[in-house]
């Protein structure tokens, strides 16, 4: 009756990244901008490729979402006209009016919460520090949307 002892290899990521500079370069927390790490051409390529991939995926998901929403709306209309479901239009109108009032209330105040404001400020600082990377991403995104 021998007991089999399982052995596991433990991977220490800190030690792993010390021996692999490319890993550290890509995933290490960065205090500066990408301009300090990469030249202009590299930033444009990285931004362009990631932007194109994002745009391409966004386009495919957008078409799928539009098809799903349109198809769902069509099926609801067919079900409503054939009598399978009954829509309470008074309730829909009341909820839409309530949503309009809330939107008017929030837009009239025009104040952001401190958490949202700090996140927006972080994004703006990042975009300013990485303007070439961001430009490449935007161009790639637009190319991905049309391809």
TrEMBL record:
<keyword id="KW-0804">Transcription</keyword>
<keyword id="KW-0805">Transcription regulation</keyword>
<keyword id="KW-0496">Mitochondrion</keyword>
<keyword id="KW-0597">Phosphoprotein</keyword>
<keyword id="KW-0539">Nucleus</keyword>
<dbReference type="InterPro" id="IPR007014">
    <property type="entry name" value="FUN14"/>
</dbReference>
<comment type="function">
    <text>Binds directly and specifically 1,2-Diacyl-sn-glycero-3-phospho-(1'-myo-inositol-3',4',5'-bisphosphate) (PIP3) leading to the recruitment of PIP3 to mitochondria and may play a role in the regulation of the platelet activation via AKT/GSK3B/cGMP signaling pathways. May act as transcription factor that regulates SREBP1 (isoform SREBP-1C) expression in order to modulate triglyceride (TG) homeostasis in hepatocytes.</text>
</comment>
<dbReference type="GO" id="GO:0000422">
    <property type="term" value="P:autophagy of mitochondrion"/>
</dbReference>
<dbReference type="GO" id="GO:0005741">
    <property type="term" value="C:mitochondrial outer membrane"/>
</dbReference>
<keyword id="KW-0812">Transmembrane</keyword>
<dbReference type="Pfam" id="PF04930">
    <property type="entry name" value="FUN14"/>
</dbReference>
<keyword id="KW-0472">Membrane</keyword>
<dbReference type="GO" id="GO:0005634">
    <property type="term" value="C:nucleus"/>
</dbReference>
<protein>
    <recommendedName>
        <fullName>FUN14 domain-containing protein 2</fullName>
    </recommendedName>
</protein>
<keyword id="KW-1133">Transmembrane helix</keyword>
<comment type="similarity">
    <text>Belongs to the FUN14 family.</text>
</comment>
<keyword id="KW-1000">Mitochondrion outer membrane</keyword>
């Amino acid at each position: 009756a021998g007991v089999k002892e399982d052995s596991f290899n433990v991977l220490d990521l800190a030690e792993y990244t010390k021996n692999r500079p490319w890993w550290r370069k890509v995933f290490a927390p960065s205090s500066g901008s990408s301009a300090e790490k990469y030249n202009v051409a590299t930033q444009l390529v990285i931004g362009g490729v990631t932007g194109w991939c994002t745009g391409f995926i966004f386009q495919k998901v957008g078409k799928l979402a539009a098809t799903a929403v349109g198809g769902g709306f069509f099926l609801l209309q067919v079900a409503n006209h054939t009598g399978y479901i009954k829509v309470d239009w008074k309730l829909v109108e009341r909820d839409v009016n309530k949503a309009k009032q809330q939107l008017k209330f929030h837009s009239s105040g025009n104040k952001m919460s401190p958490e949202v404001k700090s996140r927006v400020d972080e994004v703006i600082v990042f975009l300013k520090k990485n303007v070439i990377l961001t430009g490449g991403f935007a161009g790639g995104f637009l190319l991905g949307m049309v391809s």
